[in-house]
Amino acid sequence: TGEIKVGDLSVAETQLLSPGLSRRGFHLSYATQQTTVGVYSLRGTPFYGIRQGLKMSVDEDDSVLGSSVRWVDREGRTGVHVAYLTGTEDLSGSFASAGAGIASKGDAAGIGFTRIFGTGKVNGFLEAAVSNYDPDISDTDGSTRDQAISAGAAWRAGQKLDYTLQVQRVGADFKSIGNTGATQNIESVSLGNGIHLEKHDIRLLLYYAQDNLEGDTTIPTSQFVKVEAFDQVSLSDNFAAGLLVYRESLDTDDEPSGFIEEKLTTDHGALDLTYSRSTWNLRPVYSTTSTEVESGLTTDTTLTETRLDLAYYPSRRFSLSLTLPQI
Q1: Which residue in 111, 109, 7, 103 sits closest to 49, CA to CA?
Q2: Strands (E), the chain
Q3: Which residues are within 8 A (CB) of 247 and not within 5 positions of it... i.e. 6 or more apart?
Q4: CB–CB of 297/290 below 8 Å?
Q5: 26 CB contacts (<8 Å, ≥6 apart)?
Q6: Average pLDDT by consecutive 10-residue portion of the chain (327 residues)?
Q7: What Rg do the C-alpha atoms of the chain give, in angstroms?
């Protein structure tokens, strides 16, 4: 079957290449039982609303052009996703208007594999991408090439436990024309654990990341660690509670001359209670965040927030929400 979409669109490719690119343009696709092929052209400047017309183009000097092929085997256990993007972006535009700022140009290609193992309790993925990117086409510096890779797995241990693991390395000069805001020059690993009990749904997360992969002596190297726990509790048919706590730690090392060694620690806690009845939803929230800075300039801060969220949704087509801060 074939499909044509025109207007304000959102196109999702692989995570490294473009997990969600929303622009005005057109998208053509054709799908069979196992294969989907798509081509599209999206505006390089973010136009929205009714101004400027459709402004569709297939010129890589003012558009982002893309193509992709997705394939899955007959059993739905193995998947392959190949995508290619090329074009020019000017991200200085505002709502329903065009900007006249710095334009970037580049192309990127990526391939992703997914696999369901055994009885379906283990899912794995692997993605690799390469890019050739020029952040400012008005200067004479030209473009740079780099690559990125990401791999991970998710698995279930019975009905009450699940685990996730992901490792990623993004080169210092890797940047996709469809995902220019993504973090680069970083390698990271994350481990998650879910615990599902009768009245509790608990999520645990451990994340570590380090930047400055090429050992640039003009900037410090940073290590970032995050430990997080979240518990969603079902108190009754109408009451639920959520408790979130996490600690983030950022530490610099190998500081060049002129940089101050810095260690920043953030502790956060939040508690919310939700009462739902018929078409009403009432949710008081309390949260506190404390930040401690260890450096030549110490600026410790503590921020506390209390608010009340009200929601009214009499039908699927209509809802009304209200937030009362600092109650």
Answers
A1: 7
A2: 2-11, 21-31, 35-43, 63-72, 78-90, 103-117, 122-134, 144-157, 161-170, 186-196, 200-211, 221-234, 239-253, 263-277, 280-294, 301-315, 318-325
A3: 226, 227, 228, 265, 266, 267, 268
A4: no
A5: 4, 5, 6, 9, 40, 41, 56
A6: 88 87 89 94 67 54 87 94 90 48 85 92 95 86 91 93 96 86 90 95 97 83 95 92 95 80 89 87 90 75 82 76 75
A7: 23
